[in-house]
Amino acid sequence: MSFINLEWIVFMKIQRTNYNSFLSFITAFIKEAFIGPWKIRSLGLISLLIGYSLASAIPNLFLVVYPQRVVVVFVLIIMLELAVRIRKFLYSSNNNIILIIIDNLRIGISYAIVLEAFKLGS
Asked: d(Cα 42, Cα 57) in Å, to the nearest integer?
């Protein structure tokens, strides 16, 4: 009668594969999101929401003034590029909170642009 030696399975060494690397990255990212100072997390969330609300409000404002959608898209792209340029300029500094705020503003603006594109059906 054969049986499985469970002690051998328990002490197997976990190999370093791409999947394990991905899982460790995801768990570290989630752990960092829930563990840390509240100031950084709250500023990140507020800047994400401000970026989304700015990018949602600006098209409505400019569509009233300029009926061409191309001008509105141009303004949103300028906002994104401005955030990228500011981040590149401040990257050498050691102020991580400002970089987090700029990144989250950019993510909020990008999300609003994609959501508006889906709403317009284009």
From this structure: 22
